[in-house]
């Protein structure tokens, strides 16, 4: 891998420029065979495919890692070497441009593919549409779909999800945006699954990468980083309901939920991701009661994922209203506490049935070691720390939960909590304030003080 990076980073462009200048001579007297062999990193299609696959598989670490512009350099070198690309070459290149959000390069590789007599397949179009979505270019996405239809290829669920994402990312948002999303969901009901190319190497470029990440689906982070479970037949609904949450369109969400219920009269219901995004949408629109109702309906028949609790608690704190802060605190206590005394405190105002259901949930959480983790705790503390009035009860409670589990939240979360404490009239020698100050000082020593803190 080090040899690959050195070859491409240090020699790629120099080699490309030198080769272009002497292309007609095809490495004549100016370039000896030995020199060419020394600086060459691939000699045939298989070796070039390996190089490009390695480039795409790289992940960014700090300022080092995946550099999507190198794919174009590697392709140019391949052309200058007189090596003929194959279908797998273009699959790899377009996956890489999708990953790097380089739409012009993606369209360039598509055009190159056509010039060489290789008709793009359904996967290629999926990648192109996803790239359009990442680049917030809905017009290009529609153009790609038209091109796809002209080629006689049917759209599958990934194409529709990509189109929805493209319109979701388009700015500014208009009434047409939400109408298009509903249209794509309705249109997707008639899609016929198109068998993917067997042994499609483009889908195996990044080892251990899920289908969700490969196709840039909104469920990718939930599935990969948070270990969530989704029903893949609802891919289009995942994209559409996520778009409603991001854009804060309650009307479109409720139209989608009605559509979903009509489509699934057999008893199929929302999965965790759909419930979570619907809750996010309601909470962003200030409709806490509808979010609580969605939560209760989902949890009435199954054990909920941790993310649902965090989504409800974090979203309820938007605006830091008295009602929202109450819901947030009750939710946090129910999910993260173990002691019965804390449960009794958290269930104030709840029905007796809720008490027994919560005890059952607590037993399951204990058995599965299902507690607060650093990421969830940081998100909750950041949300709670923004409360400007009141007794700071929720923020203090989240902080105490984190401390009881020896979890140190991120620097921004500690800064926000420390600022909130100092804004309240508490003595400078208060034990809580002193402890938070020490934690903040330690984090600043490790990571450096942040600037422009309001």
Largest sheet: none
Number of DSSP helical runs:
24
Indicate the percent of residues in helices: 55-70%
Query: What string, H for helix and E for strand, traces the elements in order?
Result: HHHHHHHHHHHHHHHHHHHHHHHH
Say what oligomer this is. Answer: single chain
- The class by helix and strand makeup works out as mainly alpha
The low-pLDDT segments are: 1-14, 16-30, 194-207, 338-370
The proportion of residues in beta strands is under 5%
Number of strands: 0
* Mean residue pLDDT: 79
Radius of gyration: 27 Å
Distance between the termini: 44 Å
Q: What is the molecular shape?
A: globular
Description:
PPR repeats lie at residues 121-155. This is Pentatricopeptide repeat-containing protein. It holds the Pfam family PPR_3. The chain is mostly helical. Among the domains are: 1-118, no CATH class; 122-194 and 210-259, no CATH class. 65% of the residues lie in helices and 0% in strands. It is built from 24 helices and no strands. It has helices at 2-21, 33-39, 45-57, 69-80, 87-99, 103-115, 122-134, 138-150, 157-169, 175-188, 211-214, 220-224, 235-247, 250-263, 272-284, 288-299, 306-316, 322-336, 340-346, 352-367, 374-385, 393-404, 411-423, 431-447. The longest helix is centred in the first third of the chain and has 20 residues, at 2-21. The protein is globular and about 75 Å long. Mean pLDDT is 79; it is low at 1-14, 16-30, 194-207 and 338-370.
């Amino acid at each position: 891998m080090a040899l690959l990076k050195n070859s491409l980073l240090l020699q790629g462009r120099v080699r490309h420029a030198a080769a272009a200048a002497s292309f007609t001579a095809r490495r004549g007297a100016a370039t000896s065979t030995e020199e060419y062999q020394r600086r060459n990193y691939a000699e045939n299609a298989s070796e070039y495919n390996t190089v490009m696959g390695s480039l795409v598989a790289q992940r960014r670490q700090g300022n080092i890692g995946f550099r999507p512009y190198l794919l174009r350099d590697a392709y140019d070198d391949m052309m200058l070497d007189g090596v003929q690309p194959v279908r797998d070459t273009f699959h790899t290149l377009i996956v890489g441009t999708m990953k790097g959000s380089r739409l012009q390069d993606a369209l360039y590789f598509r055009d190159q593919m056509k010039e060489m007599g290789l008709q793009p397949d359904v996967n290629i179009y999926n990648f192109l549409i996803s790239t359009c979505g990442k680049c917030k270019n809905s017009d290009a996405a529609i153009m790609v779909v038209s091109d796809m239809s002209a080629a006689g290829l049917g759209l599958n669920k990934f194409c529709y999800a990509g189109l929805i994402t493209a319109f979701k990312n388009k700015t500014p948002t208009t009434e047409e945006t939400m109408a298009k999303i509903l249209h794509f969901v309705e249109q997707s009901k008639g899609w016929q699954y198109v068998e993917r190319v067997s042994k499609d190497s483009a889908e195996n470029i990044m080892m251990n990468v899920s289908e969700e990440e490969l196709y840039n689906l909104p469920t990718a982070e939930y599935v990969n980083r948070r270990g969530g479970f989704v029903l893949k037949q609802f891919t289009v609904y995942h994209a559409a309901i996520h778009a409603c949450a991001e854009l804060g369109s309650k009307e479109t969400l409720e139209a989608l939920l009605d559509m979903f219920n009509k489509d699934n009269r057999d008893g199929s219901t929302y999965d965790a991701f759909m419930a979570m995004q619907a809750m996010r949408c309601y909470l962003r629109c200030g409709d806490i009661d509808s979010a609580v109702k969605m939560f209760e309906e989902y949890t009435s028949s199954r054990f909920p994922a941790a993310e649902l609790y965090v989504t409800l608690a974090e979203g309820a704190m938007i605006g830091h209203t008295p009602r929202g802060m109450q819901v947030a605190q009750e939710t946090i206590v129910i999910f993260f506490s173990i002691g019965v005394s804390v449960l009794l405190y958290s269930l104030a105002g709840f029905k007796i049935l809720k008490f027994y259901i919560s005890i059952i949930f607590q037993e399951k959480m204990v058995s599965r070691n299902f507690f607060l983790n650093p990421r969830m705790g940081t998100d909750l503390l950041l949300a709670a720390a923004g409360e400007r009035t009141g007794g700071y009860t929720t923020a203090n409670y989240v902080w105490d939960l984190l401390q009881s589990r020896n979890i140190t939240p991120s620097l921004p979360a500690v800064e926000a909590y420390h600022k909130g404490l100092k804004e309240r009239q508490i003595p400078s020698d208060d034990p809580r304030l002193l402890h938070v100050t020490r934690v903040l000082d330690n984090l600043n020593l490790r990571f450096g003080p942040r600037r422009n803190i309001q």
